[in-house]
Amino acid sequence: MNRLDRPWDRFDAYLFDIDGTLIHCTDAIHYFAFCDVLTTLVGREVTLEGVTTHGNVDNGILRDALERAGVLDGGWRARLPEIHRTMAEFVEARRDEVRPTVLPQVREVLEHLRGSGARLGVATGNLERIGRVKLERAGLMGYFNLGGGWSDAHDSRAEVFCAAVAKVRAACGAATSICVLGDTPADIAAARANGLPVIAVATGIYSFKQLSEEQPELCLHSLSDLVDASART
Ligand SMILES: [Mg+2]
User: Cα of 43 to ligand 1 centre, how many Å?
Assistant: First the structure.
């Protein structure tokens, strides 16, 4: 069912999640950046085993992993800038090993929206320097003329989206219509918390059925569905 209040390509601005929505990274460089910094912090080997990463934000992943390792919040919060820098440097030093696969029809959708004059930004759980490496390696960074919502200063997706919306409206006007695209129930919930319509796309780990149950305004098997719909109109 389509509950969007207009055709999918008639919003003023779009906020895209990255992992599972635009790309899949076939490497595990971001994962190993977590393991590296967590192991240094805790003083013994720590991985992300048992931690929810999909739909989480990087600070949330750190928090959950440290909680599992028995580290109290106060011990690491003050060191967040240093933790972020260490993770970013880990990924940037290995940028050639970051191998994103661009998901089906992503470029076509971005081209279409750019051609129609829409403003494009990201709303992601990634730290900015890490998300930028992924999008640059995928050849997609140039589409995102709004920059947007990275997770550096936030603990939840709803906060990331809220900050991204404020940025978009400051740049483009208070009446700017904004649509979110994401691949997890967390994207749908964060969009809803901010009063935004959301297009859910089942190219991450969640199935079309699982996403549909969360009642996004529009649910797709992949972004190819949008391109096919445009071709028919
Ligand atoms: Mg995602």
Answer: 30
The per-residue pLDDT for range 27-85, each reduced to its tens digit, is: 999 999 999 999 999 999 999 999 999 999 999 999 999 999 998 766 788 999 999 99
- Indicate the DSSP class of residue 5: S
- Spacing, Cα 126 to ligand 1 middle (Å): 9
Q: How much distance in Å is there from the Cα of 169 to the middle of ligand 1?
A: 23
**Helix or strand run (H / E) with residue 164:** helix 157-172
Could you tell me the strand order of the sheet in which 119-123 lies? 148-149, 119-123, 13-16, 178-182, 198-201, 218-220
Residue spans of the domains in the chain: they are: 13-26+99-232, 29-97
Architecture per CATH, 13-26+99-232: 3-Layer(aba) Sandwich (3.40)
